[in-house]
Recover the amino acids of this structure.
């Protein structure tokens, strides 16, 4: 199908009105199960009945389960473990349209509802498909919503509670033990953040393209040794990134967030096995003002949690304080940084470069300026983009899908859900 283009460069895979629309089967990767006996789909039925006994008692429609946004086709081995006589599973690999985007037209919202309306159980992957209240109220068959992780700001949890629809997440797969018997406090997002810092500073993507295009040494790299890392948000991911960059490259670390104190920063350093201060008496994780954070950082890495209070927290004034040679890295959430202000900064070449793993709209529209602008040319800053890969590891996704399958079984049996959010 040809993409429909909205006025502000949004592109959705949806057919406009008065044109033939592909069937649900054509638009999804479907794992259809035989329609035999199943449990009663009512949310009030919580008594576990052996399927064999049930099959002899009554013929009931299978529960319909949607697995949304499985880009890499990882869910199938886990969801095949569900009883095929009880569940009809449909895997949808393309991202559904964001119902709550201000420029999404009514017919697109209707198309989203039509796609989701048949399902009793919906399994989501992180924030790839938002569920605002207006969408939830239009899904009368929905009885269970499963997400991944323990925090998902794209779900209107009060609206789910009002409807009596349980919502559950998954436990994280964060810190990983090493073969030397210690925990280095890193995880997939931290690894990706460090990779972006180094790839941007060393021009890895641009140099790869240059060599493959017949060129050689078109620019210079930026070293990290002895430079200053600014950490906006000294939580678990901010700490693990700061630790790696300090130990590996000897970077000076400064940090700021609204409620951070120097005592808390010292305790975080101590918990990571780091000295509270260096030989020169400077703190390992030094609390500075917001103004000094942006002004002094050679690399500014964003690690805040997105909330109503933190949305757009990085704006024009902060960006204007940054050095012309500085890099901005965001592996947290796109809306933490005001997109218009960032684009203005980069188009003027006011900082050396920017690496983004997260974006205001995901996936990025095909004609987004982030995709179409020739970054690093004509005075513009360098820009390195990745498609929100910070959490995308096969073992992590597979583990999350396994937990979703387990919660479906628990819900069907009337047991308490793991990691229930609503």
């Amino acid at each position: 199908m040809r993409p429909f283009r909205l006025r502000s460069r949004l592109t959705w895979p949806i057919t406009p009105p008065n044109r033939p629309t592909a069937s649900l089967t054509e638009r999804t990767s479907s794992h259809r199960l035989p329609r035999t006996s199943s449990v009663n789909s009512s949310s009030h039925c919580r008594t576990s009945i052996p399927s064999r006994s049930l099959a002899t008692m009554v013929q009931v429609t299978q529960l319909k389960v949607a697995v949304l946004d499985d880009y890499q086709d990882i869910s199938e081995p886990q969801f095949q473990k569900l009883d095929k006589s009880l569940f009809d599973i449909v895997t949808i690999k393309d991202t559904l349209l964001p119902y709550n985007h201000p420029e999404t037209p009514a017919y697109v919202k209707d198309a989203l509802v039509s796609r989701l309306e048949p399902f009793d159980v919906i399994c989501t992957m992180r924030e790839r498909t938002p569920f605002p209240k207006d969408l939830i109220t239009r899904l009368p068959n929905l009885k269970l919503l499963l997400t991944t992780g323990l925090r998902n700001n794209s779900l209107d949890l009060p609206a789910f509670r009002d409807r009596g629809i349980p919502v559950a997440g998954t436990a994280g797969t964060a810190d990983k033990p090493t073969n030397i018997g210690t925990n280095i406090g890193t995880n997939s997002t931290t690894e990706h953040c460090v990779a972006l810092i180094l790839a941007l500073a060393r021009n890895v993507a641009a140099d790869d393209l240059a060599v493959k295009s017949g060129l050689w040494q078109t620019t210079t790299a930026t070293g990290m040794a002895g430079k200053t890392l600014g950490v906006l948000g000294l939580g678990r991911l901010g700490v693990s990134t700061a630790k790696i960059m300090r130990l590996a490259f000897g970077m000076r670390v400064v940090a700021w967030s609204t409620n951070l104190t120097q005592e808390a920063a010292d305790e975080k350093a101590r918990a990571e096995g780091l000295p509270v201060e260096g030989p020169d008496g400077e703190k390992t994780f030094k609390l500075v003002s917001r103004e000094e954070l942006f002004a002094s950082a050679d690399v500014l890495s964003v690690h805040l949690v997105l909330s109503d209070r933190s949305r757009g927290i990085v704006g024009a004034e902060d960006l204007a304080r940054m050095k012309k040679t500085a890099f901005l890295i965001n592996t947290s959430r796109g809306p933490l940084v005001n997109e218009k202000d960032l684009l203005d900064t980069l188009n003027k070449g006011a900082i050396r470069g920017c690496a983004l793993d997260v974006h205001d709209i995901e996936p990025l529209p095909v004609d987004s300026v982030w995709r179409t602008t020739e970054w690093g040319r004509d005075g513009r800053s360098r820009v390195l983009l990745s498609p929100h890969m910070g959490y995308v590891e096969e073992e992590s996704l597979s583990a999350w899908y396994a937990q979703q399958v387990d919660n479906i079984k628990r819900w069907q049996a009337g047991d308490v859900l793991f990691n229930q959010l609503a």
